[in-house]
Amino acid sequence: MTGCYIRIKDSLKSLAPKEQKVAEFILEFPEEAMHMSIGELAQTCATSNASVVRLCKSVGYSGFKELCRVLTEELNQQSSIVYEEIHPGDSIDAIVKNVCMSNMKAIESTLSLLDMQTLDRAVDALCKAPRIDFYGAGSSGLVAKDASNKFLRINKITLSNPDPHEQILAATSLRKDDVAVLLSYSGETRDTIETAEVVKATEATLITITKFGKSQLSEMADIKLFTSSSEAMIRSGPMGSRIGQLTMVDILYTAVSSRLYDEIKPYLDKTRLAAQRKHSGKN
């Protein structure tokens, strides 16, 4: 999966002005763009061939030919999931349908951005890590807490704290082979970036989970993972981005559990039993 359209959309704000012109044209007229030559596209956008090539490289492709090939494949295999924005006064039926479609689209788009080699590196680091910390602010902090709870079930020492001051204190004690996973959809959250700076001063591996494209946070990472979201109007909060982040956390947790299954099975059984007793009120 490649997510060409999503890569361009999520990278838009981080692109140079001339690259942005080309990106905006491709996003608005994808079918026209894929049938143009590089010179025609450059002329239409009042820019140069070099700017078109730089855009292609910025979103992860070797050049214009590869971007066109991938975009063509993507347009020919468009998803059947149709998402429409929610507006004031919409019926309950329309809201239910569009919220569900949007969440499904966030998962599908996140899947399209996954690079399996990078994901494998992240899973490898998590498997070997004596300690795994999860850091995030706001809604990303809630996802970080969910991740920490999951990894506790498989006997990983893991920390997660929503307070940015305590995050920094915890990060200072990270050591070689430990892993810190930092979540921020924008990749520009000041508190999370400050925590990342502390992590970089240690020998721990830094994994980031952000939207696709350059950001302050992802540029600091040893391993970059990307999620996607569709958020606007009434859904302009962290709704779609949270779904993408939770999906990525579930992928990482399940992959680590699968790889270490024989080793972690006794702990899975113990934590499952302890949780059942807690829920039933039996000792």
UniProtKB/TrEMBL annotation:
<dbReference type="GO" id="GO:1901135">
    <property type="term" value="P:carbohydrate derivative metabolic process"/>
</dbReference>
<dbReference type="Pfam" id="PF01380">
    <property type="entry name" value="SIS"/>
</dbReference>
<keyword id="KW-0805">Transcription regulation</keyword>
<dbReference type="InterPro" id="IPR036388">
    <property type="entry name" value="WH-like_DNA-bd_sf"/>
</dbReference>
<dbReference type="Pfam" id="PF01418">
    <property type="entry name" value="HTH_6"/>
</dbReference>
<dbReference type="InterPro" id="IPR046348">
    <property type="entry name" value="SIS_dom_sf"/>
</dbReference>
<feature type="domain" description="HTH rpiR-type">
    <location>
        <begin position="2"/>
        <end position="78"/>
    </location>
</feature>
<keyword id="KW-0238">DNA-binding</keyword>
<dbReference type="GO" id="GO:0097367">
    <property type="term" value="F:carbohydrate derivative binding"/>
</dbReference>
<dbReference type="GO" id="GO:0003700">
    <property type="term" value="F:DNA-binding transcription factor activity"/>
</dbReference>
<keyword id="KW-0804">Transcription</keyword>
<dbReference type="InterPro" id="IPR000281">
    <property type="entry name" value="HTH_RpiR"/>
</dbReference>
<protein>
    <submittedName>
        <fullName>Transcriptional regulator</fullName>
    </submittedName>
</protein>
<dbReference type="InterPro" id="IPR047640">
    <property type="entry name" value="RpiR-like"/>
</dbReference>
<dbReference type="InterPro" id="IPR035472">
    <property type="entry name" value="RpiR-like_SIS"/>
</dbReference>
<feature type="domain" description="SIS">
    <location>
        <begin position="122"/>
        <end position="266"/>
    </location>
</feature>
<dbReference type="InterPro" id="IPR009057">
    <property type="entry name" value="Homeodomain-like_sf"/>
</dbReference>
<dbReference type="InterPro" id="IPR001347">
    <property type="entry name" value="SIS_dom"/>
</dbReference>
<dbReference type="GO" id="GO:0003677">
    <property type="term" value="F:DNA binding"/>
</dbReference>
